[in-house]
Amino acid sequence: MQVDLDKVKDECGVFGIYAPNKDVARLTYFGLYALQHRGQESAGIATSNQNDIQLHKDMGLVTEVFSEDVLAKLKGSIAIGHVRYSTTGSSLLTNAQPLSFRYMRGMVALAHNGNLTNANELRDSLGATGSVFQSTTDSEVIVNLIARYGQNPIEDALMKCMIDIKGAYSLLVMTEDKLIGVRDPYGVRPLCIGKLDGGYIIASESCALDTVGAEFVRDIEPGEIVVIDNKGLRSIKNLCSSRQALCIFEFVYLARPDSNLDGINVVQTRRQFGRQLAKECPIDADIVIPVPDSGIAAAVGYAEETGIPFEEGLMKNRYVGRTFIQPSQEMRDLSVRLKLNPIKSVLEGKRVIMVDDSIVRGTTSKKIVEMLRKAGVKEVHMLVSSPPILHPCYYGIDTSARAELIAAQNDLEAIRQHISADSLHYLSLEGMLASMGKQPDCFCNACFSGKYPIEIPDFKHMGKYIMETEVKHG
Amino acid sequence: MQVDLDKVKDECGVFGIYAPNKDVARLTYFGLYALQHRGQESAGIATSNQNDIQLHKDMGLVTEVFSEDVLAKLKGSIAIGHVRYSTTGSSLLTNAQPLSFRYMRGMVALAHNGNLTNANELRDSLGATGSVFQSTTDSEVIVNLIARYGQNPIEDALMKCMIDIKGAYSLLVMTEDKLIGVRDPYGVRPLCIGKLDGGYIIASESCALDTVGAEFVRDIEPGEIVVIDNKGLRSIKNLCSSRQALCIFEFVYLARPDSNLDGINVVQTRRQFGRQLAKECPIDADIVIPVPDSGIAAAVGYAEETGIPFEEGLMKNRYVGRTFIQPSQEMRDLSVRLKLNPIKSVLEGKRVIMVDDSIVRGTTSKKIVEMLRKAGVKEVHMLVSSPPILHPCYYGIDTSARAELIAAQNDLEAIRQHISADSLHYLSLEGMLASMGKQPDCFCNACFSGKYPIEIPDFKHMGKYIMETEVKHG
Amino acid sequence: MQVDLDKVKDECGVFGIYAPNKDVARLTYFGLYALQHRGQESAGIATSNQNDIQLHKDMGLVTEVFSEDVLAKLKGSIAIGHVRYSTTGSSLLTNAQPLSFRYMRGMVALAHNGNLTNANELRDSLGATGSVFQSTTDSEVIVNLIARYGQNPIEDALMKCMIDIKGAYSLLVMTEDKLIGVRDPYGVRPLCIGKLDGGYIIASESCALDTVGAEFVRDIEPGEIVVIDNKGLRSIKNLCSSRQALCIFEFVYLARPDSNLDGINVVQTRRQFGRQLAKECPIDADIVIPVPDSGIAAAVGYAEETGIPFEEGLMKNRYVGRTFIQPSQEMRDLSVRLKLNPIKSVLEGKRVIMVDDSIVRGTTSKKIVEMLRKAGVKEVHMLVSSPPILHPCYYGIDTSARAELIAAQNDLEAIRQHISADSLHYLSLEGMLASMGKQPDCFCNACFSGKYPIEIPDFKHMGKYIMETEVKHG
Amino acid sequence: MQVDLDKVKDECGVFGIYAPNKDVARLTYFGLYALQHRGQESAGIATSNQNDIQLHKDMGLVTEVFSEDVLAKLKGSIAIGHVRYSTTGSSLLTNAQPLSFRYMRGMVALAHNGNLTNANELRDSLGATGSVFQSTTDSEVIVNLIARYGQNPIEDALMKCMIDIKGAYSLLVMTEDKLIGVRDPYGVRPLCIGKLDGGYIIASESCALDTVGAEFVRDIEPGEIVVIDNKGLRSIKNLCSSRQALCIFEFVYLARPDSNLDGINVVQTRRQFGRQLAKECPIDADIVIPVPDSGIAAAVGYAEETGIPFEEGLMKNRYVGRTFIQPSQEMRDLSVRLKLNPIKSVLEGKRVIMVDDSIVRGTTSKKIVEMLRKAGVKEVHMLVSSPPILHPCYYGIDTSARAELIAAQNDLEAIRQHISADSLHYLSLEGMLASMGKQPDCFCNACFSGKYPIEIPDFKHMGKYIMETEVKHG
What we know:
2 domains, seven-stranded antiparallel beta sheet, six-stranded antiparallel beta sheet
């Protein structure tokens, strides 16, 4: 359990490589390390030596799960890996990925980032005709669908799966001799292709390509299937999307600043959010400080635009490793102080603009404002570089249930009072979309607007879903 | 890895209990403890609290796998348990039982003693229509068949399974609210019913009933399905058997002496084998000694019939626990000496009749004869209380491949020379069958006669099967 | 449309023959001719020449459907035939039998007498997993089940079908090289085996064996599958029945007097009903007359027991052929007079006891009594040689919906008044059962007692079923 | 059987209409009448009244199959119709279309123009998992696939079907409330959309739209699914084609001159073939005559380009109706004379250029040349407005087996001698493609070039296929 900083929960990251004559397991290890910010609860790597598939996965950070010994046993020319955010519970390991299974055409491994909105429906339908399940993940539903379409080559089977499954998915599938990347028709989650010495890589974010020294080739398109085998790379563009809907929250918080998603640089976008915020909410103050790390880029943008000096007023104690201790409510109170430390010399007597990327429950913001006041600031103006989160996400990130979203339950003034700031401002949705440098309807912004691009489960299911919203993820 | 005493490998034991208001996990623990002789490699218990199924299993002896803590978590009113003989290998835990799964009608757990002869065929057929497999056990085939017949109530699904599966099986199936025992139409493996304070038990051998203080009710009949739920016990006799074919090797070696199988007492039968041996092979000698423990009853019978004094000439070091050290060839040589110790004072200068239940590869017999000679015996006459093992078993016990069976490759004189005995005699098949007190054709004696009562895989498959014969078991 | 004599509708008759070197189509033609009383609406014969299956079927009587030309084309060594009672309608031919189809193991033809009580449920279940239907018969459900179990040999597939299907069925199945007879576990409909010059016959009633010169061998037992091929005849007794439940109405009306069903002679049984009726209802009268033909045997028995003279007071105009004219209500009134003619010389001035086998709606009885009065009888005492029909049949005969059953809606006196008889008496259920010469619980008497031996569809479905009760049949 | 003029066999034509408040059956009748040239052996119409589907089909021409009475019974707001070329045989009616069936989502009817190249494979695969077949048509395979994907809405089911089926297909599917048109990803067979008073039509050729007074909207694109229901028309472009491959033979012979296929006018194209032929083969002659009707447009083009006068030298006796007489070899000789009559006054003493669209076996050409010589021509130069047919078609037209194709077995000079012409010239493939006014690779020209755009069955199957080539069609 990581210290809870009241952030939107990271989801999952995937990394795959097809590179005969390379140590694919080791490269995947480094790729997952670069994607660790997308999931810290479990990690796994499966490799294929063109004949058989080996798998190792466990709870923990990438550095905890894999040792030299383990990597040495993961031989082969193809690998896929997965990092996962996951809540605690006894069934955790069962739900870790990649999944590995044998079906009529041989062994297959699968790693999934995203969330299917019709997984229950499909599980019922598969169960009704004889499928057996070990876990409750939506990924096991995909496994069984692939097997049902086993009369078809794996590419055709995946095309049929894409007709069945609804929701967000960036998927890596490895057979004994192929690496396949699949992105849902809306392209909600990112997925990109890299090249390395004649081999290929498919990864959630471009930063993972940089880490292993690979060259960025292109993003996988919404609805595209990319197949890599000994004949090279080929693309199957089967399902047409009515529109792309890349998750805008990837730019707010989820993705690493040094990644490019569908051609858009993350850190530049965050700075632009800050500049836009400056235009929308000009405030008279002495310094601009970020809530590290996610608020830094927007704070820099704000400072640039306004000329108010940027300062590091809060120092972060970088957390490493994984503890098994469950957080008590008391710990939650402690947790912010364990993680962030105000620098009195910077703050004392100042009118401070504090920039953060988002507010979920508001608990952390409240504590930080408290800390700042204790550190002697005169005024605290909180600026948020995204709009209020009003709606839950059904596409693979854990925004908490609606009932816990502070902005869904309170108006602006009530939130300001709750966090005890002198003023509180959010970036407008229009301002955010204008900052993206692409048509607004290229992005999913359902958590802000409630406009869900992909069909979500009906109300009855949604009720159930909301109950489980902290368990379901990907 | 147990010290290898060159015995036919024990197979599996199952124990199930339906007893609301009892600590079913603990009772199953003791039941499995009583059946430990049927499998020492892995152990597992699944319990149902009428709503959900919990499972714990691991490699090791019953006493190693279960602790108070673990048993405390296995709550419920129904339980099934399994002990398994299994070869070493990385996939061991995957193959441990009970298996537990979710299908369209809910959770099911399954424990299987026996071996299906058409498992590969069924696995191919299920795979061809979309089933996914995690292991290579024949039990997972049964799991998937049950799910395929999920439109039917579990009893009807099992009736259909029995039409599909060929081979030997004594099966325990537990749903959320039922305990079901199934015995194949030939009744190859034993399975009996007991009663305990209004609850019911189904177990491989009657000795397990005694251990938990239950009263023996009856054996499950060949082809019978017995269902126990809150309405009591009912029987479905669906498949008629052309003949019963209880495994005669259960009486030679596998079962515990204090068990009764299909109405026949094991220890009495073994004594009768010894008496019959005395009639067939009267030998002039000073003492009769058994190879402990399996030769004791027959040695007693032989001594009774001939009047030659019975003596314990070999002391056994009781083995406890499980080591992970792989046996090297060198160890195999050592292993007999680690296990058996000749008592010089008893043996010195004597003409000795040594009685053992069977000879598989002959390696142990050779070492024991050597030991006896070093201990100063004048003559060693080896008597075997069963006929030569000439054929492999396809019904769930591991007699080793035909190539390793000393009697399949050598005549009597060659075996005698190999083990360096002064004389060697086997019980005749006729003599053995005459000792059973039932019609001879009630028993499977294929390992001696090559007459397989149930269809076995064809030659091509058999070839493959023989290769895997040390891996496949139940 | 036959003239409606207000009788329980005949159901279906089946005839199969395995006889290399015989003209099996012609023999089947005569066999169906003998069974014509069991169904007059459609007829069909399928033959197999060990390679392929030919089929001819049409609406009409056996003599109308088949010509020399047609029979000449139906070559082979195996044949099955079917006569069917069926209501009129555009879909008639689709529902005629035998059905013929190709599945993974080759061609199959099927003829069915009876009614499945869970056909809708099974059709839904098959449809839900991809089956396609051409008709609404329950027989097409069996066809699709056989195909679903196509991985199994046909005998095993039928065993599985018997686990799925509920209700009454006497079934003939012909593959390219086998003739198979199946009788449901309750044996509701009759089915018997005959022998002819080394060949075998399976038929609904023994009278069909007599007609083709075959020797009666035995009845097929409840739950038995009989397979006839070039290795001879073998029996599979797979499903145990909790009890036999032969339809007692076969003895009242449906079967031909010269048949023996499960060892009981039909005409003798009907006479015994008459004798029993004499004991239960002694009436002072001048003559006993039957309603021909079904009342004859009981009238003879009554006359024998009482000494009152038996006379033929009503002459029947034997009906031949099939008209397509739909009966108007007016025609119904006319129809009795077209069919039955009172013989004045016999009846005039007499006190008459009129014996019939049963009363369904009462319309015919009313007309006959009227006729008799016009013919000058002094008194008419109606005796019915079975108890009042109070409940619909779900096992393959068409007793009309409950709302139309006069006895279900009226008491004895009301019925008497309706038909204007001087007195009216039914045989008691106890008296009937006592006349059978077997344990009473060997018979299904649900139409009299409401005690259904086999699960019937639940109330909701039953409601629907009653609506369709004149369409569904077998 | 039509008089055999040694032409490539017409294949099938389809016509569908969605038009509430119109007499859809009657409009379909006229549509099929306009498409009669695409198939003269059987005709059928299915209509849906939004609740149920009615179907009438029979052997014969459209005018023979349908009467006022029959049309009157085919009520509804949607209809699909089919005309089929078919060889004679007992199973003809079984194979006639539309097919109609009930599956889990209700009633469906289907009409298919084209030929699947993997129908046997799919039939085996469906059969292996329980499908039952009544016919051997590839269309029944599609029916069963739709039912297998019955968990999906019909559009999604069709998308999955398109992943499974290979070959050429222009498909009409009618459910109770939808009309759906599907064209294979190569667009081998034509299919276009028309509009009529707010209703929609889908037809094989635009001439059918003209006939019923509908306005041409557009062609259905390769790989497109067009769905018409009460919400209007929507398009699903699911499968991308690597390339279009419209059958070029549609322009040579199959389509009606007044149709436009994928934007290309048929008669203009044929004229252009004639003009191109003039450039490639300038011949000194007195007149240009066509073999009517198929040679007319090319002859006109040739005359235009060369200035040589166009004359009608052969008079055609228009054939009406269908006879059941099988053609004997003798009849084949007679048949040309029954059909074509040389006009002596036009021909006598002339040097004649005779233009035909193609030569299949060469038998008709030979007879015509003979006729012309008898009519007194001085020279006969035969020009063929397409290249030699060297390869069989696997995509739905019957070019006869390779062994019968005169050009596949003989060189140009041998063919000239066979038909006794003074000279013989074919249009070059390059010249033909240059005449199309589109990129050459937009067309399938496999019958000329042997380059098959869509995977064909492997050699072993092809062997079998060639054997059946005159039976299989669409």
